[in-house]
């Protein structure tokens, strides 16, 4: 990282007609805050992504749901602008500012016109530094969250997800629903939101990417202005979860015509030497949609389920290999048997050469589509920054996929896949399926 005489990394995306070439600049603001910039003067729009490490896992146990509620209020008035005045001002200058909370971060997304950039930066800085937390928007957002909680209480997919995480991580914040409970949501007031704001949005935990019609000097000024009103804070530390998903089948009875199953076990760190091999392997097993083995075996050959999938999931404090299936109650048992059999077959046999080449073709060919707009570029670069993948990651990513061999993929499968370790939660009225976990 350097100041405006920065390191510049060229990126050529031959197969992307919308963005044939762009350069990532690793810069420092006048006050010394690092950020990444991609100058794109041909389109008069500026996209900004700001991520703050921490997210809902920083919520005190007795205040679960506070970060989600707080982020829902951040563009509901700030400074001397109430919610209506803030929205009106944003419309006047065509500024779009959004806030959201995740398990490991809170994120600010902003889209501005180049011609109103200065006014838009001022509005963004005000929104980030001086949220009002007025009574009317608090009650409005509270009702929205409570409505969502009520819907989730009867939704089989939401119940399955919530139950899986609660059972997998009973001693970690990942095991608690980030929406909170009705009692918790009803207890939150302005002082709670102010405290959460100061905890969640600190300059020491901020990562920033800017893409669009803006110069390095303008971008540096932007960074310092939007961070100026935030506390410095302390860098968030990661404490890996000690819990492990318990193996076996856990059933939640619900009188519905179909059963939903969520399953998973321990995964793989993103910096593991076999991660890309596991990534390619997963595309073949369950990540490739209709071309995956799980879809072929469960849906195409047997007609057991419409949708079945798997994916690698990497959080700051745990790594998982997850999947899901939904089917008729009388078919869920057979579907899970087939899934476990494919889990075991992949671990034992690995990929075929045809599997490998198809996966590589898709994973490398589709990658440039993630960069066909300023917003997509900014969003992906924020991910690269926050995961500490390196500024050259976009240049090297496809090469790492191409380098995966059959031996690599088989080794990754053998290390990763363990059908007997699968923690399975089924919600519905499954027929002929015996629960094996309490």
How do the helices and strands line up, and which of them pair or pack?
Blueprint: E1 7-12, E2 21-28, E3 34-39, E4 45-53, H1 66-71, H2 83-92, E5 96-101, E6 105-113, H3 117-129, H4 135-152, H5 156-168, H6 182-187, H7 190-200, E7 206-212, H8 216-227, E8 248-253, E9 258-266, H9 275-287, H10 293-300, E10 307-314, E11 319-328, H11 332-349, H12 353-365, H13 374-386, H14 393-402, H15 406-416, E12 423-428
Parallel strand pairs: 3-7, 8-12
Antiparallel strand pairs: 1-2, 2-3, 4-6, 4-7, 5-6, 9-11, 9-12, 10-11
Helix pairs in contact: 3-8, 9-12, 9-15, 10-11, 11-15
Describe this structure in words.
The chain has 438 residues and is α+β, with helices and mostly antiparallel strands. It is 40% helix and 21% strand. It contains 15 helices and 12 strands. The strands form 2 sheets. The protein has a 7-stranded mixed β-sheet with strand order 1-2-3-7-4-6-5, sandwiched between helices. It has a 5-stranded mixed β-sheet with strand order 8-12-9-11-10, sandwiched between helices. Strand 2 (21-28) and strand 3 form a beta hairpin. Helix 3 (117-129) packs parallel to helix 8 (216-227) and helix 9 (275-287) packs across helix 15 (406-416). The longest helix is centred in the N-terminal third of the chain and has 18 residues, at 135-152. The radius of gyration is 23 Å and the shape is globular. The protein starts with 6 loop residues before the first strand and ends in a 10-residue tail after the last strand. Mean pLDDT is 94; it is low at 1-20.
